[in-house]
């Protein structure tokens, strides 16, 4: 394709070989200097402010006559010539699954809704072991709820165990909010992550991810919140995480279609999206 | 027929060879061309980048070893105040406004900004604000007995700024300079919004507009909302200091918390004012160097707008330790965490754009990969700090300093450097040297991680921010020394960039008009572009008009 830098076609142009643009003017700069000097006088000397005021007034008058009764313009000559718009590279070659250059990869992925569904159901499943732990150890299902809520209420972190075993409406609301929000986010993460591990999704979702997540939290919670760190029973925490992962992973996987054979056969770097399987051609080198 | 007076024709391209120096200077002083104003913004910001970076290096030298007396406590206070103020108000915002000034009209097919003269005024008032701030260095013990450099932090918390604790004019310099720069920022934001809404070329519906102007639109909206409260607060502080008002004077019934609210209502959206253009650069560079269309354009637009709105409801997470109460803390914990959702959408969309692409690891793309990785880490530490109990323990520690430098340097500066390498050929007509660019990238990357990765640890170990020096034996020595070394790496990397820009201008390869085989309108005009941008106002039919020109057999129009 070619696009000529033509000299025609602008309805306001004065001559066919020029373009009309606003004229250069010193007054914006002088006005800015005037305003700056007026202010500078506050920290130096009133004479500076006076000078600034004079410059400001002069600039306002100058600017006014730049615009009224007619805005001042310049005519800039148009550079004529022919410019070639073309690509030095070929259209990107596609994976065998599609011939369209707009094909989005990965070839198949989970919808956003599947991640949300997985997160919601996984979050509900996680409540069971968490409540069971509270019931067995503290004879209260509210312990885990209030401990989670302490993430939002700073003062609760130092409350007694008895306090945490009682029902608190604000604790229930805060914990519900935190748990729901986190569960949905983690569900979305599962939805995005699981297509990269098509062969062992349940292993990934049910065990690998929860154990990794728990390991990170285990090493960090002592710094983030030493009080919470002391109160958490890590065995039950891991069990709860695995419950979430298994259920969430299962639900997410219910939504998905099986990977295509071509996609499974691709190297991990391609499946993980690091690089195309198509080698660069000479034309692509910069 | 025209109804306006027309002066003699002049050539306003970047070509200045053969012209008398005074004519060249006058041409630049009086220009209303958006490209020249953009370049002046960028040059002025680079000057302040060097100054602010030099201040940072001085601070790191002071903290590299315990019990150091390289600078005095007073000078150290001035250094961190001036460094912060410079980098936010006189480097970050101007350089991003400069990039926007240069690129937005070109990308939307316009001949100039909507208000060219206001554009010039906005630049000059911002520039004079920077000079006013640094003029303070020759106050006090310098030429004027009027005060000295500000030393109250870039946040200027009350009551530090009251006359009792800050006599003389040092705080006034800060207040007035930032106030002045605010005028310029609001003027430029107004110009960008109007330009984008009113001056798009034919066929460029909002749904076809490149993502860069979209993000500049959101960013400019944020500037209106965020800078105005700061300006109001500065007027109130000036009343306190000059007229004896008591807005922030706690001894006379005023409120220090009121200042914090005003400041952070500006301060946190300001992070997004700075980071949204960085996102904008990523949105343009990543698809071109992955050779794929941007994944999820509508989601990216929606996420950007959502970030703009949500960022207005997160300011008080800077004040968890001020005693807002459980309800306030809880609201702002959640509001802060919610912003991770649209931000996450953006990260996934960038990854999806790279996914399966034919990636070309030229220097701009290398900086974008660094940006993605570091922005992710910055986001994670941001979520940690959004948790009130964590924040309580590490507020005002070096962990916080490391976190926000991860955002400001790891994300924004990396993206900006990538943008420099990407658009430099368009601005100058010359390619930047790739080898020097890679040296710059690796030195800066290593320096960045030496500095800011290690800075988290002394913060966790209890090192407070803003301290002048520290005692031996606290476990901070080695870490601070490594941080200092990293700062020097970064400084060397930045100097290589400056050298590369200057060298390439004179000795660089000719770029041609479209060296990256890109898709947006700025690559359809000569490099550097003529003062009128487009001889004929373009018409577009899709989000990638140059793709359509290059591939008429397979235009984007068929897919949108």
UniProtKB/TrEMBL annotation, chain A:
<feature type="transmembrane region" description="Helical">
    <location>
        <begin position="110"/>
        <end position="133"/>
    </location>
</feature>
<keyword id="KW-0472">Membrane</keyword>
<feature type="transmembrane region" description="Helical">
    <location>
        <begin position="234"/>
        <end position="254"/>
    </location>
</feature>
<keyword id="KW-0812">Transmembrane</keyword>
<feature type="transmembrane region" description="Helical">
    <location>
        <begin position="140"/>
        <end position="157"/>
    </location>
</feature>
<feature type="transmembrane region" description="Helical">
    <location>
        <begin position="20"/>
        <end position="39"/>
    </location>
</feature>
<protein>
    <submittedName>
        <fullName>Cytochrome c oxidase subunit 4</fullName>
    </submittedName>
</protein>
<feature type="transmembrane region" description="Helical">
    <location>
        <begin position="169"/>
        <end position="190"/>
    </location>
</feature>
<feature type="transmembrane region" description="Helical">
    <location>
        <begin position="202"/>
        <end position="228"/>
    </location>
</feature>
<keyword id="KW-1133">Transmembrane helix</keyword>
<feature type="transmembrane region" description="Helical">
    <location>
        <begin position="46"/>
        <end position="65"/>
    </location>
</feature>
Automatic annotation (TrEMBL), chain B:
<comment type="function">
    <text>Cytochrome c oxidase is the component of the respiratory chain that catalyzes the reduction of oxygen to water. Subunits 1-3 form the functional core of the enzyme complex. CO I is the catalytic subunit of the enzyme. Electrons originating in cytochrome c are transferred via the copper A center of subunit 2 and heme A of subunit 1 to the bimetallic center formed by heme A3 and copper B.</text>
</comment>
<keyword id="KW-0479">Metal-binding</keyword>
<dbReference type="GO" id="GO:0046872">
    <property type="term" value="F:metal ion binding"/>
</dbReference>
<dbReference type="GO" id="GO:0015990">
    <property type="term" value="P:electron transport coupled proton transport"/>
</dbReference>
<feature type="transmembrane region" description="Helical">
    <location>
        <begin position="436"/>
        <end position="461"/>
    </location>
</feature>
<keyword id="KW-0349">Heme</keyword>
<feature type="transmembrane region" description="Helical">
    <location>
        <begin position="294"/>
        <end position="316"/>
    </location>
</feature>
<dbReference type="InterPro" id="IPR023615">
    <property type="entry name" value="Cyt_c_Oxase_su1_BS"/>
</dbReference>
<feature type="transmembrane region" description="Helical">
    <location>
        <begin position="173"/>
        <end position="199"/>
    </location>
</feature>
<feature type="domain" description="Cytochrome oxidase subunit I profile">
    <location>
        <begin position="28"/>
        <end position="541"/>
    </location>
</feature>
<keyword id="KW-0249">Electron transport</keyword>
<protein>
    <recommendedName>
        <fullName>Cytochrome c oxidase subunit 1</fullName>
        <ecNumber>7.1.1.9</ecNumber>
    </recommendedName>
</protein>
<feature type="transmembrane region" description="Helical">
    <location>
        <begin position="120"/>
        <end position="138"/>
    </location>
</feature>
<keyword id="KW-1278">Translocase</keyword>
<keyword id="KW-0812">Transmembrane</keyword>
<keyword id="KW-0408">Iron</keyword>
<dbReference type="GO" id="GO:0022904">
    <property type="term" value="P:respiratory electron transport chain"/>
</dbReference>
<feature type="transmembrane region" description="Helical">
    <location>
        <begin position="211"/>
        <end position="237"/>
    </location>
</feature>
<dbReference type="GO" id="GO:0004129">
    <property type="term" value="F:cytochrome-c oxidase activity"/>
</dbReference>
<comment type="pathway">
    <text>Energy metabolism; oxidative phosphorylation.</text>
</comment>
<keyword id="KW-1003">Cell membrane</keyword>
<feature type="transmembrane region" description="Helical">
    <location>
        <begin position="359"/>
        <end position="392"/>
    </location>
</feature>
């Amino acid at each position: 394709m070619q696009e000529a830098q033509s000299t025609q076609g602008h309805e306001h142009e004065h001559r066919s070989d020029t373009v009309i643009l606003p004229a250069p003017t010193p007054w914006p700069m002088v006005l800015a200097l005037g305003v700056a000097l007026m202010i500078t006088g506050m920290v130096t000397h009133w004479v500076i402010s006076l000078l600034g005021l004079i410059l400001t007034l002069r600039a306002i008058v100058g600017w006014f006559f730049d615009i009224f009764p007619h805005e001042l313009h310049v005519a800039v000559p148009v550079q004529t010539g022919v410019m070639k718009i073309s690509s030095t590279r070929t259209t990107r070659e596609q994976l065998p699954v599609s011939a369209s250059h707009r094909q989005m990869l990965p070839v198949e992925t989970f919808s956003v809704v599947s991640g949300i569904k997985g997160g919601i159901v996984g979050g509900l499943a996680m409540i069971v072991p968490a409540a069971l732990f509270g019931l067995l150890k503290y004879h209260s299902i509210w312990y885990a709820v209030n401990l989670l809520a302490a993430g939002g209420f700073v003062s609760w972190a130092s409350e007694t165990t008895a306090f945490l075993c009682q029902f608190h409406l604000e604790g229930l609301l805060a914990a519900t909010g935190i748990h729901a929000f986190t569960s949905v986010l983690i569900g979305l993460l599962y939805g995005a992550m699981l297509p990269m591990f098509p062969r062992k999704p349940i292993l990934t979702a049910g065990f690998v991810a929860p154990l990794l997540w728990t390991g990170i939290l285990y090493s960090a919670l002592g710094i983030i919140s030493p009080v919470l760190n002391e109160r958490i029973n890590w065995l039950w925490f891991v069990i709860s995480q695995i419950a979430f992962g298994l259920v969430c992973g299962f639900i997410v996987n219910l939504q998905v279609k099986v990977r295509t054979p071509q996609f499974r056969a691709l190297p991990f770097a391609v499946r993980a999206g690091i690089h195309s399987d198509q080698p660069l051609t000479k034309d692509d080198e910069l | 027929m025209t109804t306006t007076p027309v002066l003699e024709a002049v050539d306003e391209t970047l070509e200045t060879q053969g012209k008398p120096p005074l004519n060249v200077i006058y041409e630049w002083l009086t220009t209303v061309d958006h490209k020249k104003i953009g370049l002046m913004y960028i040059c002025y910001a680079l000057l302040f980048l060097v100054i602010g970076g030099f201040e940072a290096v001085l601070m790191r030298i002071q903290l590299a070893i315990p019990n150091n007396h390289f600078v005095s406590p007073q000078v150290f206070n001035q250094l961190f105040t001036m460094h912060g103020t410079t980098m936010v108000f006189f480097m970050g915002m101007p350089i991003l406004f400069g990039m926007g000034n240069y690129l937005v009209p070109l990308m939307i097919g316009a001949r100039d900004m909507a208000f060219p003269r206001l554009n010039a005024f906005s630049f000059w008032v911002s520039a004079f604000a920077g000079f006013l701030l640094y003029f303070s260095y020759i106050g006090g013990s310098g030429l004027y007995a009027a005060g000295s450099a500000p030393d109250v932090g870039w946040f200027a918390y009350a009551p530090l700024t009251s006359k009792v604790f800050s006599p003389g004019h040092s705080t006034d310099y800060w207040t007035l300079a930032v106030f002045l720069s605010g005028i310029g920022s609001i003027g430029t934001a107004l110009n960008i919004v109007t330009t984008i809404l009113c001056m798009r070329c034919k066929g460029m519906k909002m749904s076809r507009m490149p993502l860069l102007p979209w993000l500049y639109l959101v960013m400019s909206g944020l500037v209106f909302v965020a800078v105005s409260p700061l300006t109001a607060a500065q007027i109130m502080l000036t009343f306190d200091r000059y007229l004896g008002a008591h807005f922030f004077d706690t001894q006379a019934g005023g409120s220090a918390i009121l200042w914090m609210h005003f400041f952070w209502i500006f301060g946190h959206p300001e992070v997004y004012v700075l980071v949204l253009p960085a996102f904008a650069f990523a949105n343009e560079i990543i698809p071109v160097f992955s050779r794929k269309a941007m994944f999820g354009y509508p989601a990216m637009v929606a996420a950007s707008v959502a970030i703009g709105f949500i960022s207005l409801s997160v300011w008080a997470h800077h004040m968890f330790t001020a005693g807002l109460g459980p309800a306030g803390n809880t609201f702002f914990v959640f509001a802060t965490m919610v912003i991770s959702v649209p931000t996450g959408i953006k990260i996934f969309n960038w990854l999806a754009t790279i996914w399966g692409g034919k990636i070309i690891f030229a220097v701009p793309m290398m900086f974008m990969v660094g940006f993605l990785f570091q922005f992710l880490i910055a986001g994670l530490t941001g979520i940690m700090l959004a948790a009130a109990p964590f924040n309580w323990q590490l507020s005002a520690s070096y962990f916080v300093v490391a976190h926000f430098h991860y955002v400001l340097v790891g994300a924004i500066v990396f993206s900006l450097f990538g943008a420099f390498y990407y658009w430099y050929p368009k601005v100058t007509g010359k390619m930047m040297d790739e080898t020097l660019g890679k040296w710059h990238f690796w030195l800066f990357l290593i320096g960045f991680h030496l500095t800011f990765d290690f800075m988290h640890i002394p913060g966790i170990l209890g090192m407070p921010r803003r301290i002048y020096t520290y005692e031996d034996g606290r476990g901070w020595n080695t870490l601070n020394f490594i941080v200092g070394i990293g700062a020097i790496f970064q400084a060397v990397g930045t100097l290589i960039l400056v050298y590369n820009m200057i060298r390439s201008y004179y000795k660089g390869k000719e770029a041609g008009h479209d060296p990256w085989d890109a898709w947006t309108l700025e690559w359809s005009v000569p490099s550097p572009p003529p003062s009128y941008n487009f001889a004929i106002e373009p018409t577009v039919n899709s989000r990638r008009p140059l793709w359509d020109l290059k591939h008429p057999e397979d235009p984007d129009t068929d897919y949108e």
